[in-house]
Each structure stands twice: as structure tokens, then as C-alpha cells.
Amino acid sequence: MRVTGLVCFALTIVLGGAGCAPQGERHAAALGPTESITNLRAIQSRRFDTVNTRLLLQASIGVLQDMGYTVTESREEFGVVVGSKATPVPVRVQIVIRRLPEQAASIARATFQFPMPPQMAGFMPETRTDVQLYREFFEKLSQSVFLTAHDI
Strands 91-99, 126-127: parallel, antiparallel or unpaired by DSSP? Predict the structure, then answer.
């Protein structure tokens, strides 16, 4: 009886331990970027060959206003601009600008979202994935940065 108890105890420890063993690859895959996230970030981001993040921030504000957005917040020290557009389906936009370390360049990332209604306050907003919207924004931003940098 005592041997059977020891065998059962040993099996419980071995089987229980196997269930708790780290699943490194599976966990890393779950927390890592997926191909769709990587593609979305590529659509949302553009590199600019300037370290003048203030210029990029001001140009972003101008482009948003030209596109009909109301700028609701701008924090130069953080490189952030937030705006919204009151359409039948409201749109929120956030621009984050950061300088690339050890390079003479900066990255601008735009995120256009459909905000959630107040009754769904705890849920994440839906990010727009419309390639044409991001392309239009970054084309206008590139033109604005060029014109501003050359005092045109």
C-alpha cells in the first residue's frame, strides 16, 4: 500500500509539473508581433530625414487641420498630437513623432481610430486599416515638411 501511495504521489508531481512547465516558444509567439500587426505599423509609420521633431509636429497639425480634423491636444515635449473629426462615424487620430537614436532621422506614426461609444468605455477603439487614408496623410505631411523646410 505504501509503495502504491509513493507511486501515485510521484506521478502526481511529474504530471503536475509537466503542466506547469514553461512554454517559452508558445508564450513568445503569443506576445510577439504578428504579420498583420507588423504590416499595420508599416502602413501607419513614415521615416523623415530630419531631426527637427518640432517641424514634423507643426506640419502634422497643419495637415490634420487641412483634412478637417480638430486638434484637441498637442504636447511638443512628448511628440504627440491628438485630433478628432465629427463625421457620421467619428474618427480620432493620434500622431506620435520620435527621433531615431544615432540617426539623422525621425519617425512619424499616425493612428486613425473609431472611438467607442460611452456605453462601451472599457473596450479598445477600432483602428482603421484603410491604406488610402494613411497614404493620403503621409503624402500631405511629406509635402508640408518639404515646403516648410525650404521656406516656400
Answer: unpaired
C-alpha cell at 144: 508640408
Written as nine digits, the cell of 76 is 511638443
* Domain spans, the chain: 43-149
d(CA 152, CA 110): 25
Give the per-residue pLDDT at 21: 46
Collapsing DSSP to helix, strand or coil, 72 comes out as strand
C-alpha to C-alpha distance for 90 and 85, rounded to whole angstroms: 6
**What does the pLDDT look like over 11-56, one tens digit per residue?**
555 555 545 545 566 555 556 666 788 888 999 999 999 999 999 9
**What does the longest C-alpha to C-alpha distance in the chain come to?**
93
Domain 43-149, classified CATH 3.30.310.80, yes or no: yes
Task: Record the cell numbers describing residue 59, joined without a space.
Answer: 506640419
